[in-house]
Specification:
The protein is mainly α and 386 residues long. Helices cover 60% and strands 3% of the residues. The protein has a two-stranded antiparallel ribbon.
């Protein structure tokens, strides 16, 4: 009985102690007069069951004159930026102070997770400095003919489908296009997703995005407790997905190095960083010794993988919504077509990188695109002479 009494007293004392602990933690933003989303024990402001759209909606409803809204991940106070100028400060002007995205990575057990988007601190700074020269407008211009070639294949595929089908799933068709573009530019291989909807690149890319290894709760805990998740050897990438993409990259790199093959694509730039620690034609003076270290094969594969993921699904979704809105707004569609025909007339009917950059209204219409490369497909779609 004495033991039971002790246990009961411990429980009675423990419950209010825990409650007071959370109350103290959850007073951070209130004490500072910052608008915040009311937290719930123990999740904080980020409920696991809530989808991202609803979560963002809650934050924007709580915004005021402040450029951000306070929130909590478990008991950790965080801010959610809601002002465009403030967001620009974080992402552009002061990006050196905001190196972390709060995404866990495990380069030992999950090498593809150790990409530029997931790294933090000095590792992120070092890798970013190495990769910055690969995303200049000049490099993108070199890749443009490849994108244009695949856009022509898309046009042919669309023409063939329209002969036999009255209704098309545009989202899937555009995803196949962007898969071929990213696969060619990032990995330097022909994915053939336009011809074969079940091509391996598309299959494994969709699996990674649509079938997460862990549920939302475990995924968030991995980000909150990265060291603990590494101790448990938790991964974010399916084993077969890792095996496929690592194998593809290894074959591509080995073949190019053995046969001294050069191409105007992202993979060629990564191979230069792997073998020479710098990109041909880029100044190598006044660079920190930590930065000039060569990329490892695993680092190379991880960057190619995130380049692939960051392009094929996001871009196809944006293109799908853009074409849908154009179908609803004939006046905007007519303006885009008129600008396309006007600019192409100056370039003798030939779509070039420079011609595309002169299509300002088109670029504004395809707002949200991550790269101007994908506007070429949009131009092909609307390239109709009156």
């Amino acid at each position: 009985m004495e033991a039971l009494t002790v246990i009961l007293w411990l429980i009675i004392l423990l419950i209010p102690t825990i409650y007071l602990f959370f109350q103290k933690k959850y007073s951070y933003w209130k004490d500072r007069g910052v608008p915040y989303v009311e937290p719930k024990i123990p999740y904080g402001s980020m409920e696991v069951s809530r989808n991202m759209r609803k979560t963002v909606d809650v934050f924007y409803k709580a915004k005021s004159n402040f450029p951000f809204v306070g929130a909590y991940i478990l008991t950790t106070p965080v801010i959610v930026a809601t002002d465009l100028d403030f967001i620009k400060d974080i992402l552009i002007r002061d990006f050196n102070y905001f190196t972390d995205h709060g995404i866990s990575h495990n380069d030992r057990d999950d090498p593809l997770s150790a990409n530029l988007f997931a790294l933090e601190g000095q590792k992120w700074r070092t890798l970013r400095t190495k990769l910055s020269p690969t995303f200049t407008s000049g490099r993108m211009k070199f890749m443009f003919p490849t994108v244009l070639e695949i856009a022509d294949r898309f046009k042919d595929t669309l023409g063939e489908l329209l002969k036999t089908q009255q209704t098309l799933e545009v989202k899937d068709l555009l995803a196949r296009f962007t898969t071929d573009v990213i696969g060619t530019c990032a990995f330097g291989i022909e994915c053939n997703s336009l011809k074969d909807p079940d091509a391996e690149f598309r299959k494994y890319g969709r699996k990674h995005i649509e079938q997460p290894v862990h549920g939302l709760f475990i995924t968030r805990l991995m980000s909150i407790f990265p060291k603990f998740s590494k101790m448990l050897r938790l991964v974010r990438t399916h084993r077969d997905v890792t095996k496929f993409f690592m194998g593809i990259v290894r074959e591509t790199v080995t073949y190019r190095e053995k046969n001294n093959i050069r191409r105007n694509d992202f993979m060629d730039l990564l191979i230069q960083l792997k073998n020479h620690a710098s990109i041909e034609g880029e100044a190598g003076e006044n660079i920190d010794s930590k930065i000039i270290q060569k990329l490892t094969f695993e680092e190379l594969a991880a960057q190619a993988f995130v380049f692939f993921l960051g392009g094929f699904e996001t871009s196809s979704s944006t293109l799908t919504l853009t074409l849908y809105e154009l179908a609803l707004n004939q006046d905007i569609q007519d303006k885009c077509r008129a600008e396309i025909n006007c600019v192409l007339e100056k370039y003798n009917g030939k779509l070039t990188y420079d011609a595309m950059n002169e299509m300002h209204y088109v670029e504004q219409t395809v707002l949200g695109m991550y790269s101007n490369m994908f506007i070429s497909l949009f131009i092909k779609y609307l390239q109709v002479s009156k």
